[in-house]
Write a structure and sequence with these properties.
- This protein has 1 helix and 8 strands.
- It is mainly beta and 246 residues long.
- A 4-stranded antiparallel beta sheet has the order 4-1-8-7. Strands 3-2-5-6 form a 4-stranded antiparallel beta sheet, with no helix packed on it.
- Strand 5 and strand 6 form a beta hairpin.
- The longest helix is centred in the middle third of the chain and has 6 residues.
Length: 246
């Protein structure tokens, strides 16, 4: 028996989680996207995500009655306009093989424009309870929020985690030599005597000069040069002032 046999009249639960990276059809404002899901003659529409722009969140769930031989659903995303016709953003065809065989499918599908260009992504969560009757394992009910794994204790280290590499290095190693404590390094030989006497390090007392010092000046201040003339006329008698009477 086929693993997907007997779907006639069974219920398929579809949750529209949201859209992302949508093509923007507005020039001056943020677009208002909504999603339309169609299966056979049944069609459901989400609410309009006002000002959702390129990333819209819906979290809405719909029910479809399955038909034998019809194993895909169609999804289309539109931009809602108030004064004009709604703008088509993109669509996709969702295959149901996985959810009909495993009972659960949570995937993101790519949207395309009418010319086949990328128009964004839509995330749907599909749940098919009929898979339990065919012993394919139970499937969880469709959540309304992204699933976050819960841990009662920190996860242990994986036995497949690589151990620290202890073999030879994959890259050439540069040989390291011990560095001396000072520079220049100490010589292993005794120091050689210098060919010249070491310079004197003391500048005091001064070395006496081999020449006598110059004689001190005889008078201070020195007489003017050339000699200045006398302001008094020379008399007949020298060496006495005032001169004796005649």
């Amino acid at each position: 028996m086929s693993m997907m046999a007997g779907i006639q009249g069974q219920i398929l639960e579809v949750t529209v989680v949201g859209c992302q990276k949508l093509k923007d059809t507005e020039w001056f404002s943020r677009q208002d996207p909504y999603v339309v899901i169609e299966y056979s003659s049944t069609r459901h529409r989400t609410r309009t995500c006002t000002d959702g722009g390129k990333n819209a969140v819906f979290q809405e769930k719909f029910m479809f009655t399955l038909l034998e031989g019809l194993r895909d659903i169609k999804v289309a995303v539109w931009n809602s306009n108030t004064l004009s016709t709604d703008d088509f953003i993109g669509n996709a065809t969702i295959q149901l093989q996985k959810v009909l065989s495993q009972g659960y499918d949570d995937c993101t599908w790519t949207l395309q424009t009418k010319t086949g260009r990328f128009a964004g992504e839509v995330r749907l969560i599909l749940h098919y309870a009929g898979a339990k009757k065919q012993n394919y394992g139970s499937a969880p009910s469709a959540p309304y929020a992204p699933q976050v794994p819960q841990y009662s204790a920190p996860p242990s280290a994986s036995p497949y985690s690589p151990a620290p590499y202890s073999g030879p290095s994959l890259y050439p190693q540069v040989q390291q030599y011990p560095q001396p404590s000072g520079y220049p390094p100490a010589s292993a030989y005794p120091p050689q005597p210098s060919a010249y006497p070491p310079p004197s390090t003391s500048a005091y007392p001064p070395v006496p000069s081999a020449y006598p010092p110059p004689p001190p000046s005889s008078a201070y201040p020195p007489p003017p040069y050339p000699p200045q003339p006398s302001y008094y006329p020379q008399g007949p008698y020298s060496g006495q002032y005032p001169p004796p009477p005649y």
